[in-house]
Design goal:
CATH topology of one domain: Methylamine Dehydrogenase, Chain H
Strand content: over 45%
Helix content: 10-25%
Distance between the termini: 94 Å
Structural class: mainly beta
CATH superfamily of one domain: YVTN repeat-like/Quinoprotein amine dehydrogenase
Oligomer: single chain
Strand order of the largest sheet: 7-6-11-10-9-8
CATH class of one domain: Mainly Beta
Largest sheet: 6 strands, mixed
Radius of gyration: 29 Å
Shape: globular
Length: 360
């Protein structure tokens, strides 16, 4: 009996000691937390380093419609305004010419409906307008006289649902063709040459395994931003896909400069791919922008991404594997597009029109 009593007494003493020890631990934790809060309140907070603003708003130009795309020659800024037609803005004095109808070669009047893409080749006074209406097409316009734009030809067939369009002067023409055009329509990509007078049809077409939202090219390759499939690279001679690489998000637009492909990737933000070896592209960096990244432009080690409700993002891409965010502007509202022009950045904003920023 005595032994049982001693065992019970020892047990009660141990339990009491455990409770006391637990209370002591709780007190120590409480005191430590109070000390941390006091020290944090007394300490000087670090201020995160911020870049000085590189972009200064120089001009705000109101337009009619929704500015979706922009292109330039040496004197003017050309704007596709969706249902608003097109605007041509003089880059010197910012005067604006607005067109909702054009004349045709037979002197008839042609109204403009839903102009989504625009491209200009100033050397040959040719303007290309992607119109999406009853029949999607690309209008070819003589813009030698800005007071009297005239439709001289059009590209139809395989022009449904154009997502991207690039026109440019052929640097070293080998025949009468002086302009080249490449555009993505639905899932496919079409390329053709133009002599400035008569469109004779596409030179080649590529049929990728996913929707082609964006396209770029150089002398040997075609680069396709293929949404969920990422970046696809095709050989221009064989028209065979030689490589592909997945990127964060959905690839929307691509711009190739040297050995790097720069991509706007919708919810995935901004990605850079090393394409020094076209057969083995390598993703080297990604920056997740706010909003949906839908356009990309690159010039002189700077890249700009238009990211919808997230505004525009300006990067220093001197080191493509470590792009530096220099400035994010949200005051423009919802942005559709942004491109470099001389030492300026031209922004097409849904609610504010055209914004022109000086780059410091």
């Amino acid at each position: 009996m005595r032994n049982n009593f001693c065992i019970l007494l020892n047990y009660l003493l141990r339990e009491k000691n455990k409770r006391n020890l637990l209370k002591m631990k709780k007190h120590i934790i409480l005191i430590t937390a109070i000390l941390v809060l006091l020290l944090a309140g007394c300490a000087k907070r670090n201020t995160p380093w911020q870049n000085e603003d590189m972009l200064t708003l120089k001009r705000h130009i109101e337009v009619v419609g929704n500015p979706l795309d922009i292109s330039f020659d040496t004197e003017n800024i050309y704007v596709a305004l969706d249902q608003g037609g097109i605007s041509i803005i003089n880059s010197a004095n910012y005067s604006q010419k607005w067109y909702t109808i054009l004349s045709s070669s037979d002197e008839s009047v042609v109204p403009l409906f839903k102009i989504r893409k625009i491209g200009v080749v100033g050397e040959y006074n040719r303007l290309f307008l992607n119109e999406t209406d009853a029949t999607d097409r690309i209008l070819i316009v003589d813009n030698s006289n800005l007071d009297s734009l005239r439709i001289i030809d059009s590209i139809t067939g395989a022009t449904q649902d154009i997502q991207d369009m690039k026109v440019q002067k052929i640097i070293n023409p080998v025949d009468d063709n002086v302009i080249e055009i490449i555009y993505s329509a639905g899932r496919n990509v079409h390329y053709g040459k133009y002599n400035g007078t008569l469109w004779l049809g596409s030179t080649f077409s590529i049929y990728p395994p996913a929707s082609a939202s964006g396209v770029d090219l150089d002398d040997r390759y075609v680069y396709i931003a293929a949404q969920q499939r990422g970046l696809l690279i095709y050989d221009r001679n064989s028209l065979e896909m030689i490589s592909e690489i997945a990127v964060p998000g959905e690839a929307q637009k691509v711009k190739v400069v040297g050995n790097y492909a720069y991509l706007a990737c919708r919810q995935g933000g901004f990605s850079i791919v090393n394409i020094a070896d076209r057969t083995e592209p390598l993703l080297v960096s990604n920056f997740d922008t706010t909003g949906y990244a839908t356009s990309i432009d690159v010039k002189d080690n700077k890249a700009v991404v238009s990211s919808g409700g997230g505004g525009i993002y300006l990067f220093d891409v001197s080191s493509p594997s470590h792009p530096l965010l220099k400035q994010n502007i949200t005051s423009a509202g919802y942005t559709n597009n942004a491109k470099f022009y001389n030492n300026q950045l031209i922004v097409a904003a849904r609610d504010k029109g055209i914004l022109i920023y000086e780059i410091d």
